[in-house]
Amino acid sequence: MDDGTDVSGSDGNGAVLIRKRRKGIYVLPNLFTLAALFGGFYAIVMAINGRFDLASVGVFCAMVLDSLDGRVARMTNTQSAFGEQMDSLSDMVSFGAAPALISYVWALNGLGRWGWFAAFVYCACAALRLARFNVNTAVVDKRYFQGLPSPAAAALVAGFIWVMTDMGVKGPTVAWGMFCVALFSGLTMVTNVPFYSFKDVSMKRSVPFAVIVLIALGIAVVNIDPPTVMFGVFVMYGLSGYVVYGWRKAKGVQTSVISMSTDEPDERGLHK
What we know:
It is a single chain. Helix content is 62%, strand content 6%. It is mainly α and 272 residues long. The protein has a two-stranded antiparallel ribbon with strand order 1-2. Strands 3-4 form a two-stranded antiparallel ribbon. Helix 2 packs antiparallel against helix 3 (81-106), helix 4 (113-136) packs parallel to helix 6 (175-189) and helix 5 runs antiparallel to helix 6. It starts with 5 loop residues before the first strand and ends in a 21-residue tail after the last helix.
């Protein structure tokens, strides 16, 4: 990508012309972002076609790709404001609109107004979660997320659908279960409950051999029954924040993950 620096030239009469190079777009991290966006779009199309198992897989693929684009940008020093905005828009589709639509088509439409209520609450909370994340980036403790991150919330919704579909359970028979999962996932996104972010885990640091063995075992366990294992992992993660919150409350430790104050009066309420 061009860095946008000024370059000089001459008009042939001795006058020096200054022109600014056009800024480009970093290709590599945005390829991952676009791939994640495609995962969300693919999930919606598969849900419309009645392939809810593939729709759930699409959401999980989008989640994996979304976790890579930021790391790739940091490792290659190709972060940009464009990439940040593109990532947020992609997340809104893949982890906001897609899970809401999939859950509605699969089960919630049988509940009438309660069904679209749950789907809309989830979608709206995803939008609020992403907006709050964008304005709180500079003040939140990097070790924790403020509220359940949208990819994990989407994994709860898609994981529930994947497990039920794998077991042969039809959506309308567990519509109220889907209702509860959608509301829990959505509302947990906009709470102040702290969720460990894993951002302090360095991929460049050497680790003991046993860690590699554990990773291999983890991959093997997932391969035994991917829907159940993946859903179980994200259920535990979705509850872990409340455990941390309760433990901090009991110990009298500050529960907020805000590491510094803000002087912006219009946004001060977002940091509480």
